[in-house]
Design a protein that fits this description.
heterodimer, A: 197 residues, mainly alpha, Rna Polymerase Sigma Factor, Chain: A, B: 102 residues, 71% helix, rod-shaped
Chain lengths: 197, 102
């Protein structure tokens, strides 16, 4: 018998086999970690939220439709856990250019100049941090949607399939959310211009 | 001759962040919480059900016994029987006793 997550799932449900349970967690963890990392609220560790996903997974394991791909169930569950975590963290009301770290400030300057060809790849972490701060200004659903579309590069149809949201609503919401994100970035750039004066 | 357009900084930010995520995800460490989580859910389904049934049975038995006791205490009241004799009954009894003693 091939040792797939589906096989481990069967073994766990039927016999509560701890070995199968561990293999199941290990095989699903990379997928869960990737989703959690892309939708992580501030001050939250990836492993903590991933653990919450697995607690929910085992709690609802008897409701899994075993005729459908397990990965899809896990993705939807992970997204729901992340969305709830994002909702529970209050949106940051306001932050200023000075709240950014030196790396992030330098990145804003570079992006405003429109040429980042001289950047080092290890500086990408600053981009991630800066993007995370910008996304914190948005509503949880807007934030999740932009991350799915532009970080995970999913199509609106895939997002609709994963979240259960209406595809027209997704397009409208994405357009508005992106405009809000641009506005948040333009506020930063204004602050940067003022700082330079 | 076309003018060179400036790249969208927000789009560029997404591109750089995506690259950073890809670097991080190259090596995903195995989760350390698996045994802890599994322990919470490791009880067999059958014994879960058994415990549930016995607990439910005990609760229903106690609730039934309490209801029966309550009914047996309160039933005479509802049937019109008075646990304490009213004053007029006592008065009648006193008259009867006085009459018999004459």
């Amino acid at each position: 018998m091939s040792e797939t997550p589906q096989h481990y799932l069967e073994a766990w449900i039927l016999h509560r086999d701890p070995h199968a349970g561990e293999r199941l967690v290990e095989s699903l963890y990379p997928q869960v970690a990737r989703i959690v990392q892309n939708h992580l609220p501030r001050n939250t560790a990836v492993e903590d939220l991933a653990q919450e996903v697995f607690v929910q997974f085992f709690r609802t394991i008897d409701r899994i439709d075993r005729g459908r791909p397990l990965e899809k169930w896990v993705s939807r569950l992970a997204l729901n856990v992340c969305l709830n975590a994002l909702r529970s963290k209050r949106r940051r009301p306001e932050w200023r250019f000075s709240d950014l770290g030196p790396g992030e400030q330098a990145l804003v300057e570079t992006l405003l100049q429109g040429d980042d060809s001289g950047r080092e790849t290890h500086e990408n972490a600053h981009a991630r941090e800066l993007l995370s701060k910008l996304l914190e200004r948005l509503a949880p659903q807007d934030r999740m949607l932009l991350s799915l579309l532009y970080l995970e590069e999913k199509t609106p149809a895939e997002v609709a399939d994963l979240t259960g949201w209406d595809s027209t609503l997704i397009k409208v919401r994405a357009f508005r959310a992106r405009a809000k994100l641009k506005k948040a970035f333009s506020l930063l750039s204004e602050a940067e211009k003022v700082r330079k004066l | 001759m076309g003018m060179k357009t400036r790249p969208d900084p927000v789009q560029r930010l997404f591109d750089l962040a995506r690259a950073s995520i890809a670097e991080d995800q190259a090596a995903v460490p195995p989760p350390g919480f698996a045994p802890r989580v599994l322990r919470q859910f490791s009880r067999p389904v059958a014994s879960d059900l058994e415990v549930g049934i016995w607990e439910r049975f005990a609760v229903r038995f106690l609730a039934g016994a309490l209801a029966l006791a309550a009914v047996s205490v309160c039933a005479p009241l509802f049937n019109g029987e008075r646990p304490v004799a009213p004053e007029e009954d006592v008065a009648v009894e006193m008259v009867q006793v006085a009459f018999l003693e004459r």
